C-alpha cells in the first residue's frame, strides 16, 4: 500500500478478507480527499461473491487486503461485520449507488472522471444518463476493453490514456475478481483513485434491471439477479452463497466459543 495522506476507514476480518467499517459518506469523503491530492488508491465494493473468492484464493486475498477501502457492498457482508465485530454499520456501500453519489460530488467539486469496462454501447448510454443528471460532470474518458487479459504494452497504453486524461477518479466495471486484479496492476502508475464498482455501468445504462429497494434492504438482491439471469448466475449463487453461510457460521461459533472460554478462564477477584 502506498503512503496515505489521510486515515482510511478501519478494517475488520471477514473470512480472512479485511473489510472496511465505512458508509457512503465516509467512503466518498475519503475518495474526494485522495482525488484532490492526485493520490493513487483503490476502493473496491465487495459483496458475498468476491469475498468468498478472496477467502479461497491466497493471492487474490493478499491483493484485496492491500486496498485502501474494501467496502461492504452486500447486506450480508455488512451483517457479518456487525455480528463478528460488534459494529453498528447501518448501511452497506452499494457499488451503483456509490458511483451515482460520487459522480454528483465530482460534478460539484470539479473532479474529472474516467470509465473503464463493459461495452461501447453501455458506456455511451451510461454517459448520456449521467450527463443528463449532472450537466457539470467532467467525463475525461471512457473505454471498453477487450474481453481478455491485456499484455504489458496494452496495460502501459491504458495507463498513458488515463494519466493523459487528467482524471481524478477512475471507475472500473469489469466484475470480480477481474476488476480488482486489474486495479492492482495499474495502481502504482496511475495518479487517480481507482473505484471498482462491479455491474454499476450496466445498471446506470439501463442494460440490466436493478433490484427494488425493499429487496436490497433485506439482502435479497442476489435472488432478483438470479431470476433476471438464471442460466448465468445459478452456479455462482449456489456455491458462493452456501460457502459464505458455512464459513460465517463457523466464524460466529468460533467467536462465541472463544468468548465463553475467556469469560470462564478469567480469574475471579479474591476477597480482601
State the distance separating the first and last CA atoms: 53 Å
Radius of gyration over all CA atoms, rounded: 20 Å
Number of beta strands:
8
> How many strands, which pairing sense, and closed or not: the largest β-sheet?
6 strands, parallel
What is the overall number of helices? 12
- The outline comes out as globular
Mean pLDDT: 90
Could you list the spans in which at least 5 consecutive residues all have pLDDT below 50? Answer: none
Q: Kindly report the spatial arrangement of strands forming the biggest sheet.
A: 4-3-8-7-5-6
Compressed to H and E, one letter per element, the order equals: EEHEHHEHHEHEHEHEHHHH
Tell me what portion of residues adopts beta-strand conformation: 5-15%
Based on secondary structure, the structural category is alpha/beta
Please estimate the helix content. Answer: 40-55%
Characterise this structure.
- Helix 1 packs across helix 5 (95-109).
- This protein has a 6-stranded parallel sheet, sandwiched between helices. A two-stranded antiparallel ribbon has the order 1-2.
- It is globular, with a radius of gyration of 20 Å.
- It contains 12 helices and 8 strands.
- 38% of the residues are buried.
- Helix content is 54%, strand content 14%.
- The protein has 272 residues and is an alpha/beta fold.
- The model has no long low-confidence stretch (mean pLDDT 90).
Amino acid at each position: 500500500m502506498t503512503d496515505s495522506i489521510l486515515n482510511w476507514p478501519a478494517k475488520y476480518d471477514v473470512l480472512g478478507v479485511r473489510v472496511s467499517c465505512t458508509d457512503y459518506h465516509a467512503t466518498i469523503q475519503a475518495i474526494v480527499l485522495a482525488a484532490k491530492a492526485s493520490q493513487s488508491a483503490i476502493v473496491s465494493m465487495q459483496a458475498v461473491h468476491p469475498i468468498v473468492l478472496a477467502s479461497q484464493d491466497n493471492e487474490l486475498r493478499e491483493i484485496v487486503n492491500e486496498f485502501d477501502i474494501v467496502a461492504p457492498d452486500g447486506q450480508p457482508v455488512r451483517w457479518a461485520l456487525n455480528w463478528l465485530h460488534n459494529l453498528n454499520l447501518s448501511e452497506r456501500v452499494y457499488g451503483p449507488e456509490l458511483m451515482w453519489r460520487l459522480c454528483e460530488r465530482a460534478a460539484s467539486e470539479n473532479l474529472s472522471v474516467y470509465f473503464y469496462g463493459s461495452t461501447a454501447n453501455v458506456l455511451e448510454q451510461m454517459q448520456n444518463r449521467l450527463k443528463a443528471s449532472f450537466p457539470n460532470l467532467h467525463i475525461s474518458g471512457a473505454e471498453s476493453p477487450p474481453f481478455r487479459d491485456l499484455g504489458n504494452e496494452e496495460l502501459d497504453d491504458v495507463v498513458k490514456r488515463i494519466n493523459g486524461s487528467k482524471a481524478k477518479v477512475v471507475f472500473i466495471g469489469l466484475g470480480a475478481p477481474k476488476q480488482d486484479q486489474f486495479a492492482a496492476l495499474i495502481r502504482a502508475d496511475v495518479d487517480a483513485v481507482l473505484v471498482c464498482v462491479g455491474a454499476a455501468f450496466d445498471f446506470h445504462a439501463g442494460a440490466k434491471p436493478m433490484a427494488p429497494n425493499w429487496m436490497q434492504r433485506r439482502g435479497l438482491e442476489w435472488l432478483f439477479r438470479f431470476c433476471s439471469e438464471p442460466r448465468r448466475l445459478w452456479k455462482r449463487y449456489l456455491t458462493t452463497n452456501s460457502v459464505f453461510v458455512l464459513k460465517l457460521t463457523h466464524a460466529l461459533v468460533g467467536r462465541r466459543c472463544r468468548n465463553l472460554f475467556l469469560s470462564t478462564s478469567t480469574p475471579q477477584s479474591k476477597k480482601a
